[in-house]
Design goal:
Distance between the termini: 41 Å
Strand order of the largest sheet: 2-1-16-15-13-11-10-9
Number of strands: 21
Shape: globular
Structural class: alpha+beta
Strand content: 25-35%
Largest sheet: 8 strands, mixed
Number of domains: 2
Length: about 400
């Protein structure tokens, strides 16, 4: 395969290069951008399958969920972008209509994506709401084969991070009833934006994206630049957080409530229990936090470093001397795990059952290990980075 010739720019701070076989799907003329399906679905899926961040009032929103951290200075974004795969393209619904893309992320959440060659209008808002209503009347059994294939792809991507509970029929059926809604078009009309923002305030997770397209004079390089015109506002996030939880989310929140009770004020934080399978705490160093993470029967304690924000720190820790240092200072066996976005230094303990039903000794281990990690690593991070607080 030739070198990449399509540049995908989710935001100015990051760059994703796609394979050259995508370079024929665009045609730019005086009437605007024309996309030739079905190739456009493959390319636009990259908008959600890789790092996608939206900033609004201090919150960072990821593909199919939002992740928060906090410290003395207020809400700070922390978290790892979620791996996302296509469940179905042009999924035929009961009405006979076809949904452009149905996506599934590693938290077990579905996203409906509707792609328009031209403008997204108020009619398109109604269209995707109708598709969501039809999807809510379906069950996992209706698309079992597609879901199983998607789960296999996600398992390969997340490895030990796989949380089987998030992909039970019960959890997935709940997710089908309230998916994320994504609209992508050449232009988004004002009335569509107004309706989308109102829906967000009612607890509907919906976002509208415009995109620009550029082509080099030689014709060898094409650039696709999306812009979120409806980033989630604090009020909308608060509304979404009050929505009824699925049973597996209730178990997670109860677990984190107990863990926070046990933690008390032993490290500085202003965290609340979440419905997610992790709970992170800011170190005060940009792009670095510590967290608890639950997966199947394991409770993990780990240091997380965003590669883009702390490249020198990542290089330092890739030397692996940190593993012996942590074992000496804290105890436990530590390991390094990497994704394209982050580096993790982690240890774990098997609960012998679902992590969300872990016995007291495992929970106490999680608290003690997190406190030891935080107290040891934060001074070291400040020494290594020269930072004393979040920039």
């Amino acid at each position: 395969m030739e070198l990449s010739s399509v540049l995908f720019l989710p935001f100015p701070s990051s760059l994703l290069t796609l394979p050259s076989h995508y370079n024929t799907i665009f045609e730019h003329n005086s009437l605007g951008l024309e996309i030739s399906p079905p190739s456009c679905y493959n390319l636009l899926h990259k908008l959600f399958a890789f790092e996608r961040e939206v900033w609004s009032n201090g919150f960072r929103c990821y593909q199919a969920g939002w992740r928060f951290g906090s410290c003395a200075r207020g809400s700070l974004p922390i978290g790892e972008p979620l791996p996302t795969v296509v469940v179905a393209s042009r999924l035929r619904l009961a009405s006979g209509d076809e949904l452009d893309l149905l996506l599934l992320d590693s938290d077990g959440r579905f996203t409906l994506c509707e792609l328009k060659r031209e403008k997204v209008t108020r009619h398109v808002i109604g269209q995707i709401l109708d598709y969501a209503a039809q999807l809510a009347e379906m069950s996992v059994d209706d698309i079992r084969e597609q879901i199983e294939k998607a789960k296999c792809k996600l398992k390969k991507q997340v490895g030990d991070e796989w949380d089987e509970e998030s992909f039970s029929d019960e959890a997935l059926n709940e997710s089908l009833k309230s998916p994320r809604l994504i609209l992508v078009g050449w232009r988004i009309e004002e009335d569509a934006i107004r309706i989308a923002r109102w829906l967000q305030r009612q607890g509907v997770v919906i976002e509208c994206y415009e995109f620009d397209y550029f082509k080099s004079k030689s014709g060898e390089t094409e650039i696709f630049v999306p812009r979120n015109l409806t980033p989630l506002e604090a009020e909308a996030v608060e509304t979404m957080e009050t929505k009824p939880l699925a049973p597996h989310q209730v178990r997670r929140r109860e677990f984190w409530t107990d863990m926070l009770r046990r933690l008390g004020n032993r490290i500085p934080h202003r965290r609340n229990p979440t419905r997610e399978n992790f709970l992170g705490f800011s170190t005060g160093i940009r792009g670095v936090w510590v967290e608890w993470n639950g997966g199947r029967s394991e409770l993990r304690v780990r240091l997380v470093i965003r590669k883009e924000e702390q490249p020198e720190l990542v290089k330092k820790l890739q030397g692996r001397e940190i593993l012996d240092t942590l074992k000496q200072e804290i105890g436990e066996e530590w390991s390094i795990y990497e994704t394209p976005i982050s580096l993790f230094v982690q240890t774990q303990k098997d609960a012998g059952t679902s992590v969300w039903e872990a016995p007291d000794d495992v929970r106490e281990w999680g608290v003690e290990t997190l406190v030891k990690l935080y107290n040891f690593i934060v001074p070291k991070l400040r020494e290594w980075t020269g930072q004393s607080e979040e920039d």
